[in-house]
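Sequence in, structure out. Go.
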Amino acid sequence: MDNEMSELEKISKYTNDIRILHEFLEWLQSKKSVEFGKWNGDRFIPALRESDETLIYEFFSIDAEQLEKERKDLLDSVEGS
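Output:
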């Protein structure tokens, strides 16, 4: 179950999926001029959204702060060996 996985394990497991989603979101925005937002009557209100990375991490339940801590801890353990 993903809840029992470390953030490093999750990022490793979903690396290819993350890359594909990121490329898809960029393609939507650059090639198809897709904008995220909502309609309020006859007025379109663009969404103030987070970065693609933040959205993708949220989708895969990856905690970016914890991931960075795990990366730092791993580097520290390798450098300390």
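Check: Residues 49 and 79 are 37 Å apart (CA to CA). The longest helix spans residues 15-31.
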